[in-house]
Amino acid sequence: MRILFTGGTGKAGRHVIPYLMDQGHSVLNIDLKPLELDGVANRLADITDLGQMVDVMSGYRDFDDLDEGRMGFDAVVHFAAVPRILLNSDAECYRVNTLGTYNVIDAALKTGVKKIIFASSETTYGICFNRGERLPEYLPVDEEHPTIPEDSYAMSKVVNEVTARSFQLRSGADIYGLRINNVIEPHEYAQNFPAYVADPSLRRRNIFAYIDARDLGLMVQRCLVTDGLGYEVFNVANADPSVALSTSEIVSRYYDGVPMKRELGEHETVYDITKARRLLGYEPVYRWRDEMGGTEV
């Protein structure tokens, strides 16, 4: 497929794009900075400018297209955003993320794209950036859990989901939102996980979950090859928690009194990925224990 990928120079995108290219896709990266990777075409463009989005989506991917006269794209993967709070003003974070997502989806549909995948976030559940501590209403946290956050970043992601659903209703396109948990790059296992083993409470705001950047690539690929779902949102995480405790120990230590919707496996994430497994055939590959040589320290 010919894929227009926004935000490919960021932490997640720079791993997802190589994965997609390994699957045989050709990619145009839209960002404010280029991704220096062989085979990737780059275009510098601002997602908050609708005209720029329509222009890049209706144009050539790279110089090779000049000979064939081919323009446009088969799918859009939208990851570009202000990635969290406390980087710029709250209002600017909200503006960029909501306006940018509106423009990307609008431009994609106007240029004939029928498959759009966009990055939502675990923060929509109101736990990650909440002031003080907020417990889930139940476990495991699935896509039916209420999304009522307090912060500007998570608010923007909830708005983006509503925007995407509205666009899908009027267009009939497939638009899938990914509630991506904390993205972990391969080098971060040795760098960060010893601290998580020593102090599991460091992972409370992430609902004790994580997503390997390479498995995020797998998730995007599963979305690309699965058609006909209309509008859907999916939790995206690895299969196991990001700490050395068993799931029952996590629940008893940190979620005492929180209702359980179902029984969980010994090392099953409490950030539920059942829906992605069922509808997309998603099955994550990487486990932090394996990446650290099977050790837990």
Automatic annotation (TrEMBL):
SUPFAM superfamilies in the cross-refs:
NAD(P)-binding Rossmann-fold domains
Q: Which InterPro entries match?
A: Epimerase_deHydtase, NAD(P)-bd_dom_sf
- By its UniProt entry, which Gene3D superfamilies does this protein fall under? NAD(P)-binding Rossmann-like Domain
Q: Which residues form the NAD-dependent epimerase/dehydratase domain?
A: 3-192
**What is the protein name given in its UniProt record?**
NAD-dependent epimerase/dehydratase family protein
Organism of derivation? Kangsaoukella pontilimi
Q: What is the lineage of its organism?
A: Bacteria, Pseudomonadati, Pseudomonadota, Alphaproteobacteria, Rhodobacterales
